[in-house]
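Troubleshooting log. The previous structure file for this entry was overwritten by mistake, so regenerating from the original sequence record. Sequence copied from the archived sheet and checked twice against the printout by T.R.
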Amino acid sequence: MTSQLRSAEFDTRPVPEPPSTSVAPQDVGLLVLRLTLGVILAAHGTQKLFGWFGGNGIDGTGRFFQASGYPAPEFMATVAGLIETGGGIALALGLLTPLAAAAVLGNMVNAVAVGWAGGFFAPTGIEFPLLLACAAGALALSGPGRFSVDRSLPVLRVHRLGYGASAVALALITAGIFLAMRN
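Regenerated output below.
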């Protein structure tokens, strides 16, 4: 009993602190980033899918994909629209953030590759899709923050860099496959 008492007295391991109830600035920043990116993407996705907000709908977007050398242009337009709409909504909610961010990142890598010949600056350049790709990659790596649906999911409650890095790798591999399908 004395040896147990002595080892407990000299235990120098740090005691875990209880979870903080204060709002961390990075959680607010991640919320703003997720909401902004999510709304922008969802709006662009609905332009592709439904022609909302002055968009071209599936037919017009399909013509763009055909001109860009993608096979099955209407299917590709639908996939891009669903990724942007669904991924945008999921990012705004902080739902399955690594996967939502990976889908968006892969989609935007393709947009950057297609727009590469247009230079850097808008309206034909890559600056906007590059910004969206970087924001999605940052969210995949950093996680959604405290104010997210993921926070209530046991597997994703604690975001690990491995989840984000795996998601980014998946996005880049998938983007490469879709780019390889272009004529």
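The radius of gyration is 21 Å. Archived copy saved in two places this time.
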